[in-house]
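Here is my example:
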Amino acid sequence: MKFFFFIAMALTPFVHAVAQNKTSMELMTIQKRMEQYIAAVDAGDFKNAEKFLDNEFRVVLNNYNNSGTVASIGREQYLGMMETGKVGGNKRILSFLLIDIQDEAALVKLKLEGEKNVFINYYNLVKKNNEWLIVNDQPQISSKSASNQ
């Protein structure tokens, strides 16, 4: 019995290290995918951006332009807005604020600082067929001029 206890205790750090390594790899994968997605959006490249989005992708706008409402934009409408230049087309500085992974789901919080606006975006990702896809984007948008007052 002591032998099994000793083996279990000896293997615990190894199992923990493997789990940490897997999590580190997932973090790096998600970070790279988000960087590529944001670069595609900033370039207005809707064809490239599309490959990062789940078929059920939605943007949820809460109180956009102080409207007091919540609006949802589906995947096709969002890509159409990008294609016509209503979304994207401006280079932003990307900062990762949080990446939280639980099994096949992840939450990513980004700060995207553009010329006129600052975005704090909450992205929900799902892992399908060994690939992380964005299923939801909830941006909080503030004007730089409003935040400087």
